Amino acid sequence: MVDLRVNLGKIQLKNPVMTASGTFGYGTEYYDFFDVSRIGGIVVKGTTLRDRQGNAYPRMAETPSGMLNAVGLQNKGVEYFAENIYPTLLDLNTSIFVNISGSTVEEYVETAAIINELDHIPGIELNISCPNVKEGGMTFGTSCPSAAQAVKEVRRVYGKELMVKLSPNVTSISEIAKAVEGEGADSISLINTLLGMAIHAETRKPVLSTVTGGLSGPAVKPVALRMVWEVSKSVGIPVVGMGGIINATDAIEFLLAGATAIQIGTANFIDPTTPVKVLEGIEDYLLRHKMNSVSELIGALEV
Amino acid sequence: MKKFMSDLLISEMIRLNEQYFIIKLTAEDKLPEMLPGQFAEIKVEDSPSTFLRRPISINFVDYERNELWLLIQIVGAGTLKLSQLRAGDSLNLIYPLGNTFSLPDFKPSDILLVGGGVGIAPLLFWGAKLASEGYTCTFLLGGRSESNLLMLDEFKRYGTVVVTTEDGSSGEKGYVTDHSILKTKQFDAVYTCGPTPMMKAVAAYAAKNKLFCEVSLENTMACGFGACLCCVTDTTDGHLCVCTEGPVFPITKLKW
Question: What ipTM goes with this model?
Answer without folding.
Answer: 0.95
